[in-house]
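User: Quick sanity check before I run a bigger batch. Here is a single chain. Can you write out its predicted 3D structure?
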Amino acid sequence: MKKEFYELVIEGPYILIKGFITGLLIGSKKMGTVIYNKEKDIKRESLSELLKEWIGISEHLTHVIISSDIYEMVTRGIETSFDDINMKIISSKKIRKVRFRFKYEAFAEKYGIELKNFFKDLPSGVSLLPDYNPVEEIHKEAKGVEIYAPEHDYKISAEGSVEGPLLEIIGLYEQAKEKVLIELKEITLHFEE
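Assistant: Done. Predicted structure follows.
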């Protein structure tokens, strides 16, 4: 069975919320997945949230993803502790799928092969969206010393998106971050209606 996740937006300082949830899990001896959006390059604010925080109108908002097996315990713990620690759940949304955009460019065929293979051998449940279309150019007449050449004998460029289950996308994103030729956008969450 596919593991389900929820994103909670909680009003309160990040460090307080992280400590509270960690203590709740340790005290209950329950295991579950907890991911803080700011630690994993997951898009966490709308423009209005950012503006409010910059000019000091709103309290700090912490975005946290939790697995369904600890959802009730965490939400109940926060709701029943409001008077003591002044944390409040602003929203709770079930995550349907997760996505990130990327682009890359390389000027050596060995790197082109490596990049194409990276996006071909995807984890189970992860798929490339139709916007991915790598373009390779080969100019045999430009072969030779290319460091300052106006044209390279090989060039590959691509941009696209991958989408799939939360944990698999986060794992792929972490692997892609290690490849210097891949430029990444933040991970975005898509919610059930």
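The domain at 5-96 is CATH 3.30.70 (Alpha-Beta Plaits).

User: Great, the batch can go ahead then.
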